[in-house]
């Protein structure tokens, strides 16, 4: 089952019971209205009554999704407006785009039902106040009850969703009442929102390369930070070039994984052979002998041999192997390790074949392949992120010095970690040109900086522009 379907199923399942309780409360609320109309001899307002029941039903489900079924003990405040959209743009996968889009869609029913339930909400400012106020109440309760973050993006998306629902509802009402001018005004926000969303997706499709998923969605606040440079930086642009290895499609990934499984003697037609698809990955396993998880974009994968007993795989005593033995074992799996890859024994049965940006003509060999060896020299796990890609195009690259200025301006990955630690001083210990896979499968150059106070590295995109 795709992760998107699984998520929708989970949300629906968790919201059903509270929604039904809400619907029952709505029916109870209708009793006085029904009695009043009956005494007056007036017909019962069926549309309004239905809207009231649906509103209470919706509110019950909303409470369940946003407050009841949440992880407890977690509470923080996210103050960067449009961060969620930036993260969705960087990753450009359905899973990440769902975060802002579902937050918008979650409040659309509120904007539709309020004007049908209480007439004052046919004024846009009342519905705007209800959407913003309801979202603010939820965010505040989530923070107080430690059930997630108080997120300014959620507040924006929820309010936008309520207004989209209001506009769609009033558009239908105005068209029915033949108020054409008001109908045009009501259509403006939905049309503008659809145009902006379409523009984002069209822009992504037209740009030559993809986006870097780990890039920061916002600029870190580096004001007051003292930067200490402990490495030499060049003022000359770095080597240019963007490389390409065709990403897997669902079909080609299936072919690769099933061929891999057949080489291991796995019964891919067996009743216990499972396949699960996610945004950028696919999972294949028969739960007894074989498991492989494949990334579409960079064609990396992780293979586990379940036939090796857990005591051997996870025991304290690991196995040993020589480079020729591992190359032979990998060849049996259909894995050809480039001769330029460096062989590293990291100890405790862990061996690595590593190639650090080796360029041979128009071919870039980069990444590493990790082998885990159990007692007896049995290879039981392979994590292969060692890739060979072809030069796709020349591209202008900024200099190390220019990348450093972007770093000082806060435009680097892990900006949230920087703001969490809020260091007064930052010692920049190293700068190195590396390649990162983007959302379209290209390998883009980036400058990787070592920051002493963070105890890790961050990167700045190296492409000019």
Structural class by SSE content: alpha+beta
Radius of gyration: 28 Å
Structure summary, number of beta strands: 16
Overall shape: it is globular
Along the chain, the helix and strand elements come as HHEHHHHEHHEEHEEEEHHEEEEEHHEEE
**Relative helix content:** 40-55%
Largest sheet: 14 strands, mixed
Mean pLDDT: 90
User: How far from one another are the termini?
Assistant: 40 Å
How many domains? The number is: 3
**Low-pLDDT ranges:** none
Count of helix runs: 13
Give the percentage of residues in beta strands: 15-25%
Give an overview of the whole structure.
The chain contains 13 helices and 16 strands. It is globular and about 95 Å long. The chain is α+β, with helices and mostly antiparallel strands. Strands 3, 4, 5, 6, 7, 8, 9, 10, 11, 12, 13, 14, 15 and 16 form a 14-stranded mixed sheet that branches. It has three domains: 3-206, no CATH class; 226-239 and 396-461, no CATH class; 242-392. The chain has helices at residues 3-40, 46-68, 83-91, 94-105, 108-117, 124-144, 152-176, 180-206, 250-263, 310-314, 323-332, 400-408, 415-421; strands at 74-78, 147-151, 226-229, 242-244, 274-277, 281-285, 290-295, 301-305, 342-347, 350-360, 363-374, 378-384, 387-393, 425-437, 442-451, 456-461.
């Amino acid at each position: 089952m795709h992760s998107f379907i699984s998520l929708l199923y989970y949300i629906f399942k968790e919201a059903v019971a509270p929604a039904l309780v809400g619907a029952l409360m709505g029916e109870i609320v209708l009793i006085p209205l029904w009695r009043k109309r009956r005494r007056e001899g007036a017909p019962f307002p069926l549309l309004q009554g239905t809207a009231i029941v649906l509103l209470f039903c919706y509110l019950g489900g909303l409470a369940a999704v946003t407050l009841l079924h949440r992880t407890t003990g977690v509470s923080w405040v996210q103050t960067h407006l449009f961060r969620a959209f930036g993260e969705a743009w960087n990753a450009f996968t359905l899973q990440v785009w769902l975060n802002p889009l579902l937050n918008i869609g979650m409040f659309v029913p509120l904007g539709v039902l309020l004007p049908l339930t209480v007439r004052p909400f046919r004024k846009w400012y009342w519905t705007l106040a209800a959407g913003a106020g309801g979202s603010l109440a939820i965010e505040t309760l989530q923070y107080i009850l430690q059930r997630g973050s108080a997120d300014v993006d959620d507040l924006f998306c929820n309010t936008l969703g309520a207004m989209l629902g209001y506009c769609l509802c009033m558009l239908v009402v105005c068209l029915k009442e033949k108020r054409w001018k008001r109908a045009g005004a009501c259509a403006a926000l939905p049309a503008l929102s659809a145009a902006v969303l379409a523009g984002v997706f069209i822009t992504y499709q037209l740009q030559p390369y993809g986006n870097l998923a780990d890039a920061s969605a916002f600029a870190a606040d580096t004001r007051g930070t003292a930067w200490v440079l402990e490495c030499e930086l060049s003022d000359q642009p770095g080597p240019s070039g963007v490389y390409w290895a065709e990403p897997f499609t669902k079909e080609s990934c299936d072919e690769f994984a099933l061929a891999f499984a057949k080489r291991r003697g796995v019964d891919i037609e067996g009743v216990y052979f499972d396949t699960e698809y996610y945004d950028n990955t696919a999972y294949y396993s028969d739960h007894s002998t074989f498991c492989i998880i494949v990334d579409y974009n960079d064609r990396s994968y992780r293979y586990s041999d379940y036939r090796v007993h857990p005591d051997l795989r996870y025991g304290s005593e690991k196995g040993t192997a020589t480079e020729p033995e591992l190359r032979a074992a990998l060849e049996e799996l259909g894995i050809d390790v480039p001769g330029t890859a460096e062989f590293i024994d990291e100890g405790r049965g862990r061996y690595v074949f590593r190639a650090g940006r080796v360029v041979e003509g128009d071919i870039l060999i980069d990444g590493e392949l990790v082998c885990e060896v159990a007692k007896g020299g049995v290879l039981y796990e392979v994590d292969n992120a060692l890739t060979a890609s072809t030069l796709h195009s020349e591209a202008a690259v900024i200099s190390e010095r220019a990348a450093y200025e972007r770093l000082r301006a806060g435009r680097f990955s892990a900006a949230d970690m920087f703001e969490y630690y809020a260091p007064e001083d930052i010692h920049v210990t190293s700068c190195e040109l590396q390649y990162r896979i983007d959302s379209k499968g290209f390998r883009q150059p980036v400058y990787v900086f070592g920051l002493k106070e963070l105890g890790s590295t961050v990167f700045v995109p190296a492409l000019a522009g």
